[in-house]
Specification:
alpha/beta
Length: 310
């Protein structure tokens, strides 16, 4: 894994990939580099305008790329179901699902289905999407699911008695809980796939501190211009580029020998550098918490993973 770079991505010809939140930042770089190596890539984005612009930008950077846009709003389970149905109609295989999209440290809010926004978008939307696309993944030899978490998962474990932060809400606590949920999801999905005898690999990654639009979204929504400026300065001065931040995702998605339930991040203190095995809080490997979160997620989304059961 030492000094692994984008040029180390194996040939992706004949492979189909879905990347959520691919209109900018880590998601866009991930989609672009997969397309550069020959994959057919679906950019799954909430905004049609930004999604189609991203496809145009990608095909300009990678002439001949096989890339297209499909609308996906992870904060609306009806949109998730529509996306999955359209994907199944148009593509008979799915080699790679990259659960990249996310929101961070937002003011209190609710999704279209009434869930706390960060938990609903970052975890429940991707939980439902993965479950609905699972038949295609199970039917494709060597398929992978890569879910993006964050080093900020260490801020907070989930509260199984208050998944929607109804008792109290702190923007960073809620974000940390949603990123812990991402890791518990990968942990339980990997366990279930192994029990079912499937060769689908479920893995996790995080970008460290990368310069994207994610950090400034919350302050901008609340009109906190000072905080927004501070994040933008940090992105320019301290953060690594989105291209560098995407490397752990691309490694988990394409490198040979990636193990189920692995967590890949930047090598230097989990902050920046080449992809490496990343530290994770012990609570993200809790079998009981993973099972209970899974059962709650099936109940809340109405999506059951029957195909992953032994």
């Amino acid at each position: 894994m030492t000094r692994w770079k984008a040029h180390d991505i194996p040939d992706q010809s004949g492979r189909t990939a879905v990347v959520t939140g691919a209109n900018s930042g880590i998601g866009y770089v991930t989609a672009r580099e997969l397309a550069r190596r020959g994959a057919r890539v679906v950019l799954a984005c909430r905004s049609e305008a930004r999604g189609t612009e991203a496809v145009a930008r990608l095909t300009a950077e990678v002439p001949g790329a096989d890339a297209g846009f499909r609308r996906l709003d992870l904060g609306d389970l009806a949109s998730v179901r529509e996306f999955a149905s359209a994907q199944a109609r148009e593509h008979d295989r799915l080699d790679l699902l990259v659960n990249n999209a996310g929101v961070m440290a937002l003011p209190p809010g609710r999704t279209a289905d009434g869930f706390e926004t960060q938990f609903g978008v970052n975890h429940l939307g991707h939980f439902a999407l993965t479950g609905l696309l699972l038949p295609a993944l199970l039917g494709t030899p060597g398929a992978r699911v890569v879910s993006l978490s964050s080093a900020m998962h260490a801020v907070s474990n989930i509260d199984l008695d208050d998944l929607d932060c109804e008792r109290s809400y702190g923007r960073w606590t809620a974000y940390g809980r949603s990123k812990t949920a991402n890791l518990l999801f990968v942990h339980e999905l990997a366990r279930r796939l192994a029990a079912a005898g499937s060769d689908v690999v479920a893995a996790a990654a995080h970008p460290g501190y990368a310069s994207t639009n994610l950090q400034a979204a919350g302050p901008r929504m609340e009109g906190r211009t000072g905080a927004e400026r501070l994040f933008r300065i940090g992105n320019r001065v301290v953060a690594q580029s989105a291209d560098a931040g995407a490397l752990p995702t691309l490694y988990a998605a394409t490198a040979p020998g990636v193990r189920p339930d692995s967590f890949t991040g930047p090598a230097i203190l989990g902050w920046r550098g080449s992809p490496a095995r990343s530290w994770r809080a012990r609570w993200t490997l809790d079998d009981t918490a993973g099972r209970l979160l899974w059962e709650a997620s099936e109940r809340l989304t109405g999506v059951a993973y029957d195909g992953s059961r032994a």
